[in-house]
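Technical annex, item 7. During the second reporting period the consortium partners agreed on a shared format for inverse folding records so that results from different sites could be compared directly. Each record opens with the tokenized structure and is followed by the designed sequence. A conforming record, contributed by the partner at site C, is shown below for reference.
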């Protein structure tokens, strides 16, 4: 991971203060994702992965919803290509996140951009975007620290799920997947501050409900693009 002191303006807060602020900001989302990580670890064991393989999924793949989907498909004997396709569709929102920060990260070195890309999650995006709105600039060190802290929580939760899954049957039936919805609600509600954001959220949700029964996992992309389009049009109309 690149040093947190790199690419920071003169007079910026100390490294310790930066670590503290980024860690505190990402902490609520990190805690909320613990049941989700436990579920990933336990489910991986149930479909036949070894404890090491289950942990490596979180260490290397590091994509919560995609991990759950890939694990479930693997357990059902699905070939590799459909699993990869499903993973791509489920994580496609990261393309939108990348476009959002494109101008901010272009001046950075490849090492910084690669590190930010690896640690980029829905949660890291949410806190980094909020920090940019608050300060008026994108702070790559802040974003990287927040992403790294979340990464530690996710892998610790996965390890806990692996350990618990070896002794407790039926962890996947305990409703731990509610943490997925709770986490996204916690990220979405604070962002609904104006009409374009509210409309984008409502349209995305409505489109997801309408298209999911018909379009399988492609509905994620369609609902997201629909919400973005409505939000963009309303934003332009207000200018």
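Designed sequence (site C submission):
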């Amino acid at each position: 991971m690149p040093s947190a002191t790199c690419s920071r303006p003169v007079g910026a807060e100390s490294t310790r203060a930066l670590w503290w602020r980024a860690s505190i900001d990402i902490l609520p989302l990190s805690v909320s994702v613990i049941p989700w990580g436990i579920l990933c670890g336990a489910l991986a064991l149930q479909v036949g992965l070894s404890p090491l393989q289950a942990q490596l999924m979180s260490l290397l793949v590091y994509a919560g919803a995609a991990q759950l989907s890939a694990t479930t498909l693997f357990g059902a004997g699905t070939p590799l290509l459909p699993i990869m396709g499903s993973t791509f569709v489920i994580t496609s929102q990261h393309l939108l996140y990348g476009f959002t920060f494109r101008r901010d990260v272009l001046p950075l070195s490849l090492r910084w951009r690669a590190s930010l890309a690896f640690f980029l999650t829905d949660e890291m995006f949410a806190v980094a975007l909020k920090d940019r709105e608050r300060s008026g600039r994108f702070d790559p060190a802040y974003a990287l620290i927040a992403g790294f802290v979340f990464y530690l929580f996710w892998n610790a939760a996965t390890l806990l799920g692996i350990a618990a899954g070896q002794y407790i049957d039926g962890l996947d039936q305990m409703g731990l997947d509610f943490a997925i919805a709770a986490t996204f609600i916690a990220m979405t509600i604070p962002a609904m501050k104006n009409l374009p954001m509210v409309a984008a959220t409502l349209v995305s949700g409505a489109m997801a409900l309408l298209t999911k029964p018909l379009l399988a996992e492609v509905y994620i992309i369609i609902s997201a693009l629909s919400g973005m389009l409505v939000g963009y049009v309303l934003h332009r109309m207000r200018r």
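The CA atoms of residues 98 and 117 lie 8 Å apart. The chain has two domains: 14-176, 191-238. All partners now use this format for quarterly exchanges.
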